[in-house]
Amino acid sequence: MADVTQKTKAQAVRDYIAEHPKARVKDVAEALSKQGVEVAPRYVSRVKSRAKATRPRGEKQIKLKKGKTKFSGGTAKYPRHNLERALRIPKAILEQNAGRECTEQESASFAGVTYNRGPYVVELSSASKFGLLEKSSGKVRLTDLARMILHPQDEGARLKGLRNAVLKAPEISDVYKRYRGVNLPDEQLLDNTLVAKFRIPQDKLAEFKAIFKKSLEYAKLIEQTNGKSRIIDVSGPGEVPVDTGARLKKLGKAISVSSKDTCLVVMPLAEPHGAYYDQIYKPAVEKAGLRPVRADAEIFGAGKITDQVWQGIKAAKILVAELTTRNPNVFYELGLAHALRKPVVLVSSNENDVPFDLRHIRVIYYDVNDPFWGRKLIDKVAEDILSAIKNPKEAIFKPEQEG
After folding, report:
1. What is the pLDDT of residues 28-58, one digit of tens each?
2. 3-state secondary structure (DSSP) of residue 8
3. How far, CA to CA in Å, does 386 sit from each of 129, 191, 199, 271, 319?
4. Which of 117, 160, 262, 299 has its CA 20 to 30 A from that of 56?
């Protein structure tokens, strides 16, 4: 409990300093004391020094109007509260003020808390980043999304509203889109990705992950499967808006591919999976801008099949492997691809069909009971093909002994 209290005090100090960068340590301590947070000036000074020491190298402080400051790099944009907590103020405005527009100070009284320019304003900001509040001329008002969540016509509408709120939140939305339909990677890899690709400050990783996971849990966008956290893909029509076209365009600009580059699809021949090539995988590969080749049907002719498989895999820029049903030929071809250090996008409808020693690699999971599974899978495979070409280390088998 002592550790939690210390973290809470430290966060209160950081939040206050963020809003009052010129405040003296004594003033910070006195202001927080009025808010019920008892800290000594020396403690405030230590927190300030620690924050300065952990600021990313090369980060510059930029002066803004009214004495406010921000940092040019490494600044967190995500809501500082999870979605459930961010609904507190909008709910209070709806229940205590019939949802009418009000001042920030009035909103605090509706919520039954003391208004201040530190933690309370940060909470208002969190509600705004989830798309729950709008601010204009010093007043705040509920958005249609907030009303949809707090006063829904049915439970389905509320859930849809919560999921749309997640998709509006900066950085949380980006991470959701990146991992939708797959398991979150192990903690160290996830941390590395959050810092390198999403620019989450190193000292805010624990906070971001807690807010991200709690928000997704509240919106039923994450589930536990065999000890892994799987992000649920609800990007179909009538669900949450995910602009896959924009994501593909962004990925396409970062790499170089041509229609001459091949993507080898290794998959079972037996139905129903055999039909997925024309229905799913061929359109997905073409959407990514590569030329699809189905191993069993298109490159195998007369002669020694193993040699042709080997040459086909060597010639491919990337592979897609459908693992459902544990087809022996698929696993043989996958083994050759791993031996050649080729990036492979793994796909399965059943986690039990994914061998244990492959589960640490990114796998796209799909649910044929979802009415939109085909469209979602096409979009996701296309995205992951480009992502794997851009970041091949994520899609290349790496034995544990290599570290």
Report:
1. 888 888 777 888 888 888 887 776 554 444 4
2. helix
3. 29, 22, 20, 28, 11
4. 117
Task: Show Cβ contacts of residue 49 under 8 Å, excluding neighbours closer than 6 positions.
Answer: none
Report CA dihedral (144, 150, 154, 157) to the nearest 10 degrees.
50
Read off the pLDDT band of 250 (50, 70, 90): confident
238 exposure class (CB count in 10 Å sphere: 0-12, 13-18, 19+)? exposed
Q: How many CA atoms within 13 Å lie on the side-chain side of 401?
A: 0
CB-count exposure of residue 209 (10 Å: 0-12, 13-18, 19+): middle
Rounded CA-CA distance 241/107 in Å is 30
pLDDT digits (tens, 9 = 90+) for 315-345: 999 999 999 999 998 999 999 999 999 999 9
Query: Average per-residue pLDDT in the chain?
Result: 84
Would you place residue 277 in the very low, low, confident or very high pLDDT band (cuts 50, 70, 90)?
Answer: very high
Over range 209-227, report the average pLDDT.
Answer: 94
DSSP letters of 194-240? HHHTT---GGGHHHHHHHHHHHHHHTT-EEEETTEEEEP---STTS-
Q: What angle do CA 38, 105, 27 make, to 5 degrees?
A: 30
Distance between CA atoms of residues 18 and 272, nearest Å = 57
Residue 403 has pLDDT above 50, yes or no: no
Give the Cβ contact number of residue 321 at 10 Å. Answer: 22
Closest CA to 357 of 341, 377, 335, 390: 335
How far is Cα 328 from Cα 268, in angstroms, rounded to an integer? 9
Phi, psi of 221 (to 5 degrees): -110, 10
The residue with tokens 């966060």 is 11
C-alpha span between 87 and 85 (Å, rounded): 5
Give domain limits for the chain: 2-70, 76-224, 254-402
Q: Is the pLDDT of residue 22 over 90?
A: no
Just give the CATH number of 254-402: 3.40.50.2300
Tell me the C-alpha distance between 213 and 117, whole Å.
27
* Mean local confidence (pLDDT), 232-251: 74
State the pTM of this model: 0.72
